[in-house]
Each structure stands twice: as C-alpha cells, then as structure tokens.
Amino acid sequence: MIGMGMTLSAEDFLGIMRKPKVVGFGVGCQFICMPLAALLSSKIFKLPPALSLGLILVGTCPGGTASNLVTLISNASVPLSVLMTSCSTILATILTPLLTKILSRSSITVNGIQLFKSTSQVVLAPILIGMIFNKWLPTFSEKCSKYTPFLSVILVSLICGSVVASNSLILLTSGLPVILSVIFLHSLGFSLGYYLPKKYGYDEVTRRTVSIETGMQNSALAVVLAGSLGVEGAMVPGAVSATVHSCIGSALGGIWRWRDGREGEKENEE
After folding, report:
1. N or C, which end of the chain is more exposed by having fewer CB within 10 Å?
2. Are 229 and 111 in contact, with CB atoms under 8 Å apart?
3. What single string gives the DSSP state of each residue in 54-120?
4. Is the Cα dihedral 98, 79, 195, 246 positive or negative?
C-alpha cells in the first residue's frame, strides 16, 4: 500500500472529478456486484460460516494493483484503471467493514469497529505515507516504484502461501467448494463488469477496464483483514482468490489482446 501511495498524488484524485460518471460506474460495480456475487457464491456452494466470511471479505475489498498490469496487457485504459483502483481503495476504509458486517450478519458475528480500524491501518495510513513520500521525496519514490510491484508480488505470495500451509486441513476437507466458489465469484465479476457498461453504451476500452477492476480484488488485503478478526479459516478464500483472479484476468487480457491483433491484421489486409 505504501508502494501504491508512492505512485499517487493529489492531482490523480482530481481526475475523478473530470471523469466522475465512468469512475463512479466502475466503483459501483466493484462495491455492488462483487459483494452480492460473494454472498450468492457462498450460498450456492454451501460454505461454512468462517469460509463464507472470508469469501465476502474478498468480494468487499477494493481492486488491487495487479489489475493495472492486466489492464495494460488487455489494451484497456491504464489511467482509468489507476483512478478506479485509487478511488475504491480509499472508499474501502468505510465500505469494506460496512458491507462485510451487513452481508455476513446471518452467518457469523463481525466486529465492525475492529474491521474498520484494521482497514484504516492497512489501507489509508500506508497510502497517505506513500503520498507524502511522493510529494516531498519524488526522486526516491520514483526509484522505489520500479521495484515495489515485484516486491508486492513476493510479499503476497508469502502471505498467501503461509495461509495455505497453516490451513491445509481446511483445504483438504473443504478445498473443492472453496476453489469453485472463488472461481464463480471472479468469473461473475469479470462478466458483469464487462456487460453492464456495454448495456449503458460505454466503449470497448472502458468495458474492459471496468471488467478487470470489478473482477480483480485486493486478495492480500482480504487475507490480512480476515486474520485481524481472529476467525479460523476465514483467510483461506483470500489466499485462493489471489491465484484465481490473476489467472482469469491474465487469460482474459491475453484473449482480448489476441483479438485486437487479429482485427488489426484484417484491417491491414482490407
């Protein structure tokens, strides 16, 4: 999160004011479609309360920085992706605890205040620190930004790997429903994120961007927040999600890029 903050400035958030409609649409998909899809998926695959809570946390988390890379691969709008990621990450400080509290009420008790504190510590505080670095130490921030994405990948791999290792018994007994529920969640997110903008007349580039931002969550954040609640097993869906959404997003991006190449070849032939 500090690394993300180092790439942001106050001017970036002014961009939201210039594109309020499309950014609002994308963030709306993020915090409406995905939480409801997570609840639906947990019901379909009959997840126990702890795993259901973990899946709902995944659905209520903001977009992750990996979405920006997949957006680049997909020939979509990277600036719009960054705007949506930034906006959803800030809003997550309030919306993630609130939505998780509402949607998981029937399955398990969630300490909303504790989740709000954890989200603020993990999201808001580090991003502000990173933005301060970017403001007052721009050269240092620019150099660090070359390495922070790779470092983030390593850290997420270690976090998710440790969760899988420490919860191996849960995965052995409930692994298939968890994996299927996560695949269903992200597949539905990518699909709704693409076809809803299409219904409202947005262009192809915007549809791809919203699709990626909707379908790809900050799974590492979901893992950390689940751990802060102290509910055994709740971290597992987030750990599985980190792999699943990256695979689906990369595959989708590759397909879109391949399709653009084919269309370009046809235009050249004509």
Report:
1. C
2. yes
3. HHHHHHHS-B-THHHHHHHHTT--HHHHHHHHHHHHHHHHHHHHHHHHHHTTTTS---HHHHHHHHI
4. negative
Q: What is the sign, positive or negative, of the torsion defined by CA atoms of 242, 245, 251, 256?
A: negative
Tell me which residue range forms the domain holding 138.
2-260
Asked if the structure places residue 30 within a domain, the reply is yes
In DSSP terms, 63 is beta-bridged to: 217
Structural domain total, the chain: 1
Residues of the chain with pLDDT under 70: 12-17, 105-112, 115, 267, 269-270
State the residue for tokens 């939201």: 16
Residue 268 inside a domain? The answer is no
Beta bridge partners of 217: 63
With a threshold of 0.85, does the pTM exceed it? no
Structure tokens at 212: 């990626």
The CATH number covering residue 43 comes to 1.20.1530.20
Q: How many residues does the chain have?
A: 270
Q: Is residue 68 in a domain?
A: yes
Q: Is residue 132 part of a domain?
A: yes
Predicted local confidence at residue 5, as pLDDT: 78
pLDDT in tens, 72-95: 778 888 778 878 887 888 888 889
- pLDDT tens for 217-254 read 888 888 888 888 887 788 899 888 888 888 888 889 88
Helix (H, G, I), strand (E, B) or coil at 146: coil
Residue type, 202: Y
